[in-house]
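Changelog excerpt

This revision adds worked examples to the README so contributors can see how folded entries look when concatenated. The first example is reproduced verbatim below.
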Amino acid sequence: MTADLSSIKAQIRAMSNKTVANGCTEAEAMTAIHLVGKLLQKYNLSMDEVQLRDEKCDTLQIHTGSKHKDGLYYAASAIADFCDCKVWINRSRINGLSYSFFGQESDRLMVRYLFDIIKSALDTELASYKLTDEYLSCHFRGVSKRGASSSFGIGMGRRISQRLYDIMRSNKAEGNGNNALVVLKSQLVTEAYAALQLKLKKGYSNTTVMDGHSYHKGAAAADRVNLNRPVNGPTNSVLAIGSR
């Protein structure tokens, strides 16, 4: 790996640590998130086959600290597929839900970037929705506020998932990226994942949308989330290796 790419990677790691949990303001954290996106664009577009093979696969664990499924639960698979990663979800009575994304480092960094963007959007949009008359009057529709919030999150998460898959299909149809590198990356990740020999159980979700009105409001809010830059930048070639 060239010194330039190593430097970019170091900057990505540093920016990824600038979070509210680590003492940054929300504005500082969002600025860092967008800078990470730009650096990821530069990094991925500079990779060749040799550097791709040198990328090691590992697991990124993201702990939510919550026992409840929010919109991210319904977008996790799409995030993983978009970033050429594998994903599985762990449930703990003590620590709640956590997400494990397995893939190459540049893709794990992209997962972290997307996860933070979507998480921030979910929190912001739900907080705004809770101030609306539609939410405050949900009991007139026979729905609790918890049911309305849950339905909003499901709608937003599922719509974000759909949008990510739409971007992938568009990139594939337009022939963006180096197809040989796309295939190679998929093979490398699949082989490394198989070597883990994980024994995962298939999960069954008993998700119930309690409030159709809130669900559709969440879906509409998902359309306001900026997934186009730097994920699918102005030249439609950003992160081309991972955008199948």
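The second example, added in the same revision:
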Amino acid sequence: MTMTCRHGLVWARFLKFPLAIAFFIGGQEEAGAQSPYQLRSNREWTLLGVGAALGLSGLALIDDIEPFTENELSALNTQDINSFDRSGMEPYREATAGDVMKYASFALPLTLFIDTRTRQDWKTLGVMWGEVLLVEAGFTAITKGLVRRTRPYAYDPDAPLDQRTSTDARVSFYSGHTSVTAATCFYLARVYSDYPMSGTTKTIAWSVAAVYPAVVGLLRVDSGHHFRTDVLTGYLVGAAVGILIPQLHRASGNEDSSIGAAASGGRFALTFNF
């Protein structure tokens, strides 16, 4: 398999995730006495392996995707798109605002250093956030590599031809920008909820978690880079990863926050208790 320079750089960047997490796991320390979370080597290595395997497999699949030819582009028909997504299609434009918000979201975890309690647990919280990013990136990569959905701008004859004939034009589902921002924001909201923070702090955290990735998703649709269902799916997957990774790390004796399921009499219930 011949790897393009662009995808070679993507692989190199992706590999930084498991290497960085492995560094912290290898030298992990006990969390603070009042920490709601606990690291366990077996669990962390499992998450590391699953996330890396998904991501590298997905990137290999993406690297095998053949870009559209001009003849293939001319054969694309918007009537083949479901009505919900078709009605939300926008002309291509540079996605600068969405990119800025995506990268800015990586600075949000720095707010954990404001409070003494979360600052003392920086290593545990850092490993958990790294796992959130790794698992989210793994799900995104494998899904894009398997689904290979055409981006909206590929249907736009006025979009730059180099964009329409790139491999990226064939990996629309689902939105990685929306997913990664949702994962980070909901991770932070969950962490703030698990520490004895003020009600105001928790309300702000959950409000940001709900709104920030939604705005990113809207920007991705508005720039012609994604369909509505791309960003809705990315939002839900990212939020789920951001909430569930902290749940997996709950320390013994800190079980006031839980997620459970039950079935009875033909009915199924999913419960969340924070």
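Reviewer comment on example two: The beta strands are 258-264, 267-273. The CA atoms of residues 68 and 165 lie 5 Å apart.
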